[in-house]
Amino acid sequence: MNQLLIITTGGTIDKIYFDDKSDYQIGEPQISQILHAMNVGFEFEVNALMRKDSLHMSDEDRKRIRAAIVESDAEHVLITHGTDTMVDTASVLQDIPGRTIVLTGALNPARFRDSDAVFNIGCAVGAVQSQPAGVYIAMNGRVWDPARVRKNRDANRFEPI
């Protein structure tokens, strides 16, 4: 992998909790700080495409994500994304040839001490380097085929279908 293109779209991974309002808002992408703190041994570029909760993503937003990938020369793409509609976005990206695309996110904001963000990003970085061209979801310590996974909201995890 020469360089990793990282596209950030928002989602829980980048949420900030405002205690005085008991409200979450999507803040600056956290992945760059996480990768620098982990002293990774590869080059990466972050394209902060949008800051949306995935429940608010539209077909137009998914077309923007697709266009950003197609317009790039990067063969390896990691997308941080909200978990609720991650599978929907993955399906829109399925037929992009010659790219390994991995979507990941977090069930708790990266700014929280017990967040799964760093673990999921690490898993996604490994997957984007080792999987053949195609689209994958990296969550809960597994690399999933998007056509065979769903988010179980009650258990707060991804599971096979």
TrEMBL record:
Keywords: Hydrolase. Residues 4-153 form the L-asparaginase N-terminal domain. Pfam families: Asparaginase. PROSITE patterns: ASN_GLN_ASE_3. One of its GO terms (molecular function) is asparaginase activity. The keyword Transmembrane does not apply. InterPro entries: Asp/glu_Ase-like_sf, Asparaginase/glutaminase-like, L-asparaginase_N, L-asparaginase_N_sf. Substrate binds at S54, T83, D84. Its EC number is 3.5.1.1. This is Asparaginase domain-containing protein. It comes from Elongatibacter sediminis.
